[in-house]
Predict the structure of Putative hemin import ATP-binding protein HrtA.
Amino acid sequence: MSVIELKKINKYFGKGVSKVHVLHDIDFSADRGELILVVGPSGSGKSTFLTIAGGLQTPTSGEVSVEGKQIAQLSTSQRDKLRLNQIGFVLQSYSLVPYLKVKEQFDFVNKVKRQGNLNKAELADLLKQLGIENLTNQYPGELSGGQTQRVAIARALFANPDIVLADEPTAALDSERVAEVGKLFKELAETRNKAVVVVTHDVRLMDFADKTYRIMDGKMTETNTEKMAK
């Protein structure tokens, strides 16, 4: 059974003459142990796809299932619990708490989600792997865009989710950092048995992907990773 599955997903925005068909009959699934890229240009529907996959948005039609459970059939509290315990989001907005230092961002997660998070040693290793171990006493406003992005990645992974959904996680990173993030996501999938789905236009991540999908004008097709990278 796929850990996350989307069947015939359609999404419309607006009404009447302004109605826009953003996603067209999307079929998608991800298994534990896989790093999957969904690649496409800005405005192609990548972010909408990701937020629907994670239950942050409701599709106009179609089904989204996590561990075999249809999200639409869950109560509001059950959906909140699902996102808290099983899904880790790395969104373009970063969503760091501005008045908390980097180290306090993880304390905040511990207060919201009291079980299953990384321990201190594991967190230290994660921060070192992302090259942000010396930033723990900084506030988000004191960080560069790339540093903020890496802290947001660390905070999402700290909660130790079964599914990681990342929206352009390498957009502000140089090639060396992109490789580090790619290796980290690959390790999460392979050694920690997680499903990692990354929506991006960054072809530098291609070398790390198990599968690659192309999304264009709201239509998704699985494609050859080697061809995409050329």
The chain has one domain: 4-229. Residues 175-191 form the longest helix (17 residues). The chain is about 35% helix and 25% strand.
